[in-house]
């Protein structure tokens, strides 16, 4: 009566395995992020780069909303990213009071290189998996993505996490 049923054991096992997988990815991702010529980029700064890669030319307010952060904090992140040459601020053609935020060519190259390094790390691990396990992984990841992006759309895009690929 009014109680939600106990989660299926396989769902719990999958959630636990997913958590372990994400923790492993975080460790692998750190290795790629720290190998940058401009110095390490923090996870928060990387979220800014991903957001600008998806929505080139957004203003600070829109970026803060996309990240679920306060504009002053996002502004400081952008200051540091601009100082390293990864982003630029340009006057908005629509409003003289606003600035547009864009990745520089250096910022785009950084993300491309980071994604390439991360994909290489994944490929070496996935290549070692048996073919049946690779197919199952692909099917599972596609199913997860489809459900996650469908629920993001059902929420009206209100979540602050978004696919970054």
Describe the protein in words.
With 165 residues, the protein is mainly alpha-helical. The protein has one domain (28-153): Winged helix-like DNA-binding domain superfamily/Winged helix DNA-binding domain (Arc Repressor Mutant, subunit A). It has six helices and two strands; from the N terminus they run H-H-H-H-E-E-H-H. The chain has helices spanning 9-34, 43-54, 60-67, 71-83, 105-127, 131-154, and strands spanning 87-91, 99-103. A two-stranded antiparallel sheet has the order 1-2. A hairpin with a 7-residue loop joins strand 1 (87-91) and strand 2 (99-103). Helix 1 packs across helix 5 and helix 3 (60-67) packs across helix 4. The longest helix has 26 residues, at 9-34. The protein is globular. Residues 158-165 have low confidence and may be disordered.
Helix content: 55-70%
Order of helices and strands: HHHHEEHH
Number of strands: 2
Oligomer: single chain
Any idea of the CATH topology?
Answer: Arc Repressor Mutant, subunit A
Percent in strands: 5-15%
Q: What gyration radius follows from the Cα positions, in whole Å?
A: 19 Å
Would you tell me the overall average pLDDT?
A: 83
What is the SS-derived class? Answer: mainly alpha
CATH class term: Mainly Alpha
Domain HTH marR-type: 18-146
Pfam families: MarR_2
Organism: Streptomyces durmitorensis
Protein name: MarR family transcriptional regulator
Write the layout of secondary structure elements.
Layout lengths: L8 H26 L8 H12 L5 H8 L3 H13 L3 E5 L7 E5 L1 H23 L3 H24 L11
Antiparallel strand pairs: 1-2
Helix pairs in contact: 1-5, 3-4
Protein name: MarR family transcriptional regulator
InterPro entries: HTH_MarR-typ (IPR000835), MarR/SlyA-like (IPR039422), WH-like_DNA-bd_sf (IPR036388), WH_DNA-bd_sf (IPR036390)
């Amino acid at each position: 009566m009014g109680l939600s049923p106990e989660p299926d054991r396989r769902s719990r096992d999958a959630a636990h395995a997913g958590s372990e997988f994400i923790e492993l990815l975080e460790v692998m991702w750190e290795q790629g992020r720290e190998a940058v010529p401009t110095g390490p980029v923090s996870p928060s700064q990387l979220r800014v780069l991903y957001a600008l890669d998806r929505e080139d030319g957004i203003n600070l307010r829109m970026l803060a909303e996309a990240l679920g952060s306060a504009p002053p904090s996002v502004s400081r992140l952008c200051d540091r990213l601009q100082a390293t040459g990864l982003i630029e601020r340009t006057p908005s053609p629509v409003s003289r009071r606003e600035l547009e935020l864009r990745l520089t060519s250096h910022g785009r190259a950084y993300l491309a290189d980071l994604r390439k390094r991360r994909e290489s790390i994944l490929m070496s691990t996935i290549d070692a998996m048996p073919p049946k396990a690779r197919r199952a992984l692909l099917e599972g990841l596609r199913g997860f993505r489809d459900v996650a992006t469908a629920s993001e759309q059902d929420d009206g895009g209100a979540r602050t996490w978004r696919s970054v690929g």
